[in-house]
Amino acid sequence: MSFNFSGGSMTLRQLGIMSALIGNFILTNSAMAQAPAASSMYSGSFGGGLAVTNGNTNTRSFNLSGAIVRDPKTKNVIKGAASYLRGSQSDILNLDRTAINARDEYTISTRTYTFGQIDYVRDQFKDMIFFWAPTAGLGYKLINTDRTQLTVDGGAGGVLEKNPGIDAKKSGSVTTGHHFQRKLSSTAAFTEGMSSIWKTQDFNDSLTNFSVGLTTAVSGKLQLKLEFVDSYKNRPPRVTIKKNDTAFVTTFAMKF
Asked: Which helix (H) or strand (E) holds 21?
């Protein structure tokens, strides 16, 4: 079962992903409305973008993204983020990627924290039916002010990856990452981050995700985010698959 959206075919499974993101946003806002005393623990955003061109080249692309943070102002902070990118050119699908991250951080000291997280990636054009990566590790806040934050972390865990025509493969993993945020004003911020996962069975088989972006307020709680994302798989399952995929994403998001 499928339906057409701006020149691209979307499966029922992909609709489910979109519905889950939208449903989570609605339920979260409903819960906060019913319990205003606890609403300060939660913050986040939900949004999307659409690009259409016609003429010599017909292109359609859209994105959905959501993020939520539960911070009860104690030592424990829970974060979740999800994104979905889909695009076509001349009615031929050329982008179909889902990424989800759930993370739990526990503060040890002013600058040090431990974390546990799980990453999920599905990318049709990298031949990744699924890529699961649970990880635990240690992080350090190199800069931690109201205006600027810079954190680095490292950890270890596992990877379960499934590619078309190949049995799912398991491996241990080693991870590193960093995140930088700088408030440019009361309504604008610059962000940059990178994370890498290496398989211990073959350290040449790695997945690195990089992003750099600018977020600014449009009106009230409505934000505009311009972001460049880069996904690099050092050893794709087939030699015909390019290692590097990049995208420039424009998103309108509503904060809550």
From this structure: helix 12-34
